[in-house]
Amino acid sequence: MQIRLPNAALSLESEGSLLRRFVGRQPQRERFQKLLAMPSGSALPLVVVHGASGSGKSLLGRRILAELNGELPDDIVPWFPCELRCPAVLLDLRLGALIHDPLSALQALRDGLEIECPRFDLAMAWRQRLQEQGGGPGLWRTEAEALAAEAVEELADYGPDELPSSQPARFATTRLAGLLRGTKLGEWLQSREGGDDFLALRELPVSAFSYRLVLERLADDLHKNLPKRPSGACRLLVILDAFERTNGRETTWVRELYECLAPFSLVLVLGRERLDWAKHDSDWGKAKVCEQHALSGLSTDDAERFLTLSGVDSEALRGSFRALCQQGQTYDPQALGLCADMARTLSAKALGELPTTALPFAALFEHFLRALSQEDRGLIEQLALVSRFDREAVRACTMLASRWDWLQTLSFLEPVELDWYAFSTPVQEVVRAQKTRKESEQETWERHWQGRSKRDTDRFAALAWYHTWCRKPEEALKFWKVLAERERSAEQRRGHAELLTWWEPTGLERRTPTKTTEVEALSVLGVEVGLSQGGTTSQRRAIWCQEAALNAVDEKKSPQLWAAIQNRLGDAYTHLQDGDRNQNRARAVACYESALRVYTKLELPQQATTVRGRLGGAYLELASGSRKENLTRAISCHQASLRIYTPEKFPQEWAAAQSDMGYAYTELPGGNRDANLAQARAYYEAASRIYTEESYPVEWAVLQERVSILEWLQGRKDEARLLLERALEIFQQHGDLERIEHAQNTLQLWEPTPTSPIHRPKPQVAVFLVLMVPVAFALWGVIQFLLGRLHR
Predict the structure, then answer these.
(1) H-type alpha helices, 244-355
(2) Please, are residues 293 and 48 in contact by the beta-carbon 8 Å criterion?
(3) 252 and 537 Cβ atoms separated by less than 8 Å
(4) How far apart, in Å, do the first and last CA atoms of the chain sit?
(5) How far, in Å, CA of 480 to CA of 457, rounded?
(6) Nearest residue to 447 (alpha-carbon basis) of 472, 470, 464, 461
(7) 673 burial class (0-12, 13-18, 19+ CB within 10 angstroms)?
(8) What is the rounded distance in angstroms from the CA atom of residue 762 to the CA atom of residue 748?
(9) pLDDT in tens, 541-585
């Protein structure tokens, strides 16, 4: 996804104007100076500044950012001594991709710094190459990214003895050497450590490029290459703005970011609420680990100074404005900003008609709108309908070029991205609640964005789709599902990832859904997120979506929808890779059983059959309780599903049931063992009629893995090894890390002789086999252990 987060998205003139009017916040300024001055070796805490919308959190962050990066206008008095300056970068979480795809956040962090990060750039470039399936470098945001992409493309097929680290003289004559000359990337690739690192990267499948792996590489780069501060601990400031956008979702990535960067960086979180992480880990309640500061209203002196700096010269008018903005003993910064807008925009007559007592922001903004000219009010109302806009969108609303300049002066205009803006959330809420917007207005914006769209998943298509959602949510949901399935089926990961961000402007994940379409949409989004190959973060987000949807629907009023969400929640827990794996499977079983109960009651045989198949798979993996009973239940579920699933109408589902039953009979304890294994072979042979290597490579490989166990148990050990080796090749091609590990471990245990010159068993395995008595039961125990991990 093409995201670029500059440190200042407003024009320099507009940014400077805002910073010149920044007043107060003395306690926060003093505390931050102490943090920047902490000596080397000090433990830097996570710093949280929280307060209501419009309290000035974002501007505080931008004020600190501008000073540390040397971008503060010359006429503004600095807060900090020059020796405390360090590089700083701001990540605006209003960009949904940064919340939902933590790797995008790391890329944005790296792009915001003028620091070379060779290890990070190599990992991201190689990951991108794998995602594009070797299609070569495409469009890159920065020169460093393009350079890393060129390097991995050039070196992709080099042998170990051909790499720059092995052949420096030969490499020095190449075109790539010229490109890399004088860069940290070139130095790294030509070092022995860098050459070994690149070889290790080449062996990794795309799924191995986890957030943690990439984060650690970035942290290592920054620690080595950031400017040194011999007397100071803080060498980097990372600001996370609009943290409320996470809405309580999985924020493990933020904790890991702090933990990896804390030895040399300050992480500043700006959001509406206090962090509640101490509920789950008491360490986060300690001030030395996490300190939290509330940002409230401005004092009388600061409010007076702000209005004066904003050009409100009349003492009487300043007094009237303070009365309008008073909140107890302080003054609302957001309302004061609006009053400054009024002073610059409204006539003396309109200003004289303002109330004389304090008003909530919404009521004050209503007065502002009513006092505007018809054209200016229409412009504000039109732009409040969109999730973001640029200059061309403003031109679509008004032909007056001066109105763009006027918009740039408004206190509630917020930079979202380079050259893109949005009104603050409170302003959008006021305008959208003012009246039911005419469908024609939404349709006008829909046509505007469609006219600028070049492909059906680009940012303009997303903006157009948002207005379709506002007009016709059912139609928008149906269209989005088609696009998501198409991109996922075609393995277009970038397009699929872009589609997942389309929902951000709808606020679907930030509030409780109240309509059936919203519930269904949240659940469908959870399904696609879970299938996005985004790792643990995506899996947790998928569960969050399904649970939020489930909490918003009544089983008695909407039983079919409730059952569908239970089924999807079961899928989400089935795919969850972290935490207690058995507990995840137990939760999946509970969800499937709830869904099955409802579908059976409603007499929906097709849906009930689907759930039975998944319930059977969950019982296969369930380790708690009686293993024999779990396997018996799995067999029963699959046998019942075969009443509907036939190889002619449902070939894939039929084959999956056959394979699972073969696995269950292979592992089933007790009874006639030979008969069970014979039954397992019959089921595997049936599944192999559908699961061919050409049509279903992964499913075919899983089947070969299971058959290999059966061959081993029946004494055909050479055949077992060949089957498992072929399955391993497929798993490696598809980057299935868990199955790769299991297959490799099994092959190691199956080595033909302990004295083989090529394959030598690990000492602990040999000792284990020798000490277990009797030997026959030892081998059986090992195989049973492996069988418990072979099913997906």
Answers:
(1) 252-261, 300-309, 315-325, 333-345, 348-352
(2) yes
(3) yes
(4) 30
(5) 10
(6) 464
(7) exposed
(8) 8
(9) 899 999 999 999 999 999 999 999 999 999 999 988 877 889 999
State how far the alpha carbon of 721 is from the alpha carbons of 13, 328, 717, 718, in Å. Answer: 70, 77, 6, 5
How many angstroms separate the CA atoms of 368 and 370, rounded?
A: 6
Is 265 in contact with 35 (CB distance < 8 Å)?
no
The answer to whether residues 155 and 190 touch, using CB atoms and an 8 Å cutoff, is: no
- Looking only at the bridges linking them, the beta strands covering 46-50 and 290-294 are parallel
Token code pair at residue 412:
């509630």
- Tell me the C-alpha distance between 383 and 590, whole Å: 47
Of 14-18, 71-75, 622-626, the one with minimum mean pLDDT is 14-18
Range among 340-349, 397-406, 434-443, 734-743 rated most confident: 340-349
208: helix, strand or coil: helix
Residue matched to tokens 């007397």: 231
Read off the tokens for 605: 């045989």
Helix axes 252-261, 535-551, angle to 10 degrees: 150
Q: How many residues does the chain have?
A: 792
Instruction: Answer with the residue of higher pLDDT: 297 or 246.
Output: 297
Q: What is the spatial distance between Cα 499 and Cα 481, in angstroms, rounded to a whole number?
A: 10
Whole-angstrom Cα distance, residue 146 to residue 552? Answer: 46
CA 371 to CA 44: how far, in whole Å? 49
CA atoms within 13 A on the CB side of 223: 12
3 state SS of 772: coil
CB 494 within 8 A of CB 1: yes
Among 144-148, 460-464, 531-535, name the most confident range: 460-464
In the prediction, which pLDDT does 209 show? Answer: 85
Which of left, alpha, beta for 774 (phi over 0: left; psi -120 to 50: alpha)?
A: beta
| 181 CA to centre of own chain | 35
Contact 627, 620 (CB under 8 A): no
Instruction: Determine phi and psi for 267, rounding to 5 degrees.
Output: -115, 120
- The CA distance from 499 to 371, in Å, is 40
Instruction: Determine the 3-state secondary structure of 399 from DSSP.
Output: coil
* Residue tagged 């799924």 (tokens): 207
Pair type for strands 330-331 and 326-327: antiparallel
What is the rounded average pLDDT of the residues 451-480? 95
Most confident of 1-10, 503-512, 753-762: 503-512
The tokens describing 135, both together, are 């299609």
- What sign does the CA torsion over 119, 122, 125, 127 have? negative
DSSP string, 429-464: HHHHHHS---HHHHHHHHHHHHHH-SSTTSHHHHHH
Q: State how beta strands 290-294 and 265-271 pair.
A: unpaired
Quote helix, strand, coil % in the chain, to nearest 5.
Answer: 60, 5, 30
Give CA–CA dist 122/155, Å, rounded: 11
Residue 232 structure tokens: 């100071």
Look up residue 187 and give its two tokens: 């130095």
Asked if 148 contacts 124 with a C-beta cutoff of 8 angstroms, the reply is yes
- Give 421's strand partners: 389, 415
d(CA 766, CA 327): 75
432: which residues sit within 8 A by CB, 6+ positions away? 384, 385
Residue 27, classified by CB atoms within 10 Å of its CB into exposed (0-12), middle (13-18) or buried (19+), is exposed
